[in-house]
Design brief:
heterodimer; A: mainly alpha; Arc Repressor Mutant, subunit A; 58% helix; B: mainly alpha; 3-stranded mixed sheet; 5% strand
Chain lengths: 121, 309
């Protein structure tokens, strides 16, 4: 499954270069000894997930990324953040499971501590 | 039918033994580990213990030996026991058929949840490998996070970034770079995988114990680089801005005060090192010890099975 995800990512990297791509063009750009059907399957899966759009031209499909790389990454991180906030499990470094609003009084105390430290210097 | 008895029994034994080990060890370690950095640092090793117990049970069950004559791999030792004694013997699986319903029940209770947890973990992003070079994105909520457990990238909300001063930004990046240097995203993923064998609540608590220590260590490293006051100031500034306080700089709910006061404390700071080679030696030793005890364990398991019938 991790391998599938890595391949999906490489295919998306190709599409994020912009423009429309056929399966054969994506296969050439990925530059790995993969079968035509493997790339076609990955593109089909990405289309089902809504990450890729396509149109039929003649007998073959042309594909392009549904969102820019930044938009896709932001959506992915947003999903992770939402999951991390909702789940009881610590999921991310720099995140924890419970969002606890900081007490304003505590902030006042900490700022006073910081100010005192700066004054001493 | 009888060919299935032993595998089903072994899976049930491994699952229940590792679950029980986790249920006992994790809460105990979590309770004594708070505020003891040396203990909380060992949380990844403790997380591995139920797997070692499970491995020992697996080996004991499928590779029985005679405790009186040392290990005899796959040897039939039924003749050394009383008639009617339930055996975990690959030569006579039918003797354990009475345990089948209980084993199936244990599997039904414990296995699906673990499979779902492992599937979720596998589907998490590997990361894009940009490291500590900030990727600024317009996120749904403000935050700074390391995305990806294998090749992590520092992703920061563009709104949060623009609200921070230059010193705050340096402090934030230094903190996350410290996490990267310690390979914390990878260790966190390993911990989540390891604790998934046991009860959820105790596994999460043990993971939180380790993460708390990881935050303190990242603070200590970052403070050496940018100055403790600057880092503390960045933490407080993010909180004051009201920008998702639990996210910015990765502090945990309720930890802010403790982290800031620790940074402002002028006594020497020492971040605990990340998991290293010595830790893997300890795990290797525990595995060897567990495997060496399998003949004894095999017979204890049989005693347990016979007592519960």
């Amino acid at each position: 499954m991790a391998r599938d995800a890595a391949l999906e990512r490489r295919v998306l990297d190709v599409l994020w270069q912009g423009g429309e791509w056929s399966v054969r063009q994506v296969l050439a750009e990925v530059d790995e000894p993969l079968a035509y059907t493997t790339i076609a399957t990955v593109l089909d899966r990405l289309h089902e997930k809504g990450q890729v759009q396509r149109v039929k031209q003649g007998v073959s499909w042309q594909y392009w990324a549904a969102r820019s790389k930044d938009e896709a990454l932001a959506a992915e991180v947003g999903r992770l953040m939402a999951r991390a906030e909702a789940a009881p499990e610590p999921m991310l470094v720099a995140f924890l499971d419970q969002v606890e609003r900081v007490d304003p009084d505590a902030l006042d105390r900490l700022e006073a501590l910081l100010e005192a430290r700066r004054q001493r210097k | 039918m009888s060919a299935l008895v032993l595998p089903v029994l072994v899976i049930a034994l491994v699952l229940s033994a590792s679950w029980l080990a986790a249920a006992l060890i994790y809460p105990m370690w979590t309770a004594i580990g708070w505020d003891r950095p040396r203990w909380s640092r060992a949380a990844p090793l403790i997380a591995a213990l139920p797997w070692i117990v499970g491995l020992a049970v697996l080996v004991a069950a499928v590779l029985p030996g005679d405790p009186h004559h040392g290990p005899q791999l796959l040897a039939c030792h039924c003749s050394t026991s009383q008639p009617g004694w339930v055996h975990l013997c690959p030569h006579h699986p039918e003797q354990a058929i009475g345990m089948l319903p209980l084993a199936l029940l244990v599997i039904a209770l414990l296995l699906p949840g673990r499979l779902r947890a492992w599937q979720r973990l596998i589907s998490e992003p590997l990361g894009t490998g940009t490291g500590a070079v900030p990727t600024l994105l317009s996120l749904p909520s403000p935050g700074a996070v390391l995305v990806g457990w294998w090749r992590p990238s520092l992703v920061i909300d563009a709104g949060l970034w623009s609200a921070l001063s230059s010193d705050d930004r340096h402090a934030l990046v230094a903190h996350e770079r410290a996490h990267l240097a310690r390979r914390d995203p990878l260790v966190l993923m390993a911990m989540r995988l390891l604790v998934s064998l046991g009860p959820k609540a105790s596994g999460h608590a043990l993971t939180r114990l380790w993460l708390d220590d990881a935050e303190r260590s990242a603070d200590a490293r970052a403070a050496d680089e940018v100055g403790a006051t600057n880092l503390a100031s960045a933490l407080v500034r993010c909180a004051r801005l009201g920008l998702a306080p639990a996210h910015a700089l990765g502090w945990t709910g309720g930890q802010l005060e403790r982290r800031v006061t620790a940074l402002l404390d002028e006594s020497p700071r020492a971040g605990t090192p990340a998991v290293g080679a010595a830790d893997f030696l300890v795990i290797g030793g525990a595995v060897l010890l567990a495997l060496a005890s399998t003949p004894w364990l095999h017979h204890q398991l049989e005693h347990l099975l016979n007592a519960s019938l």
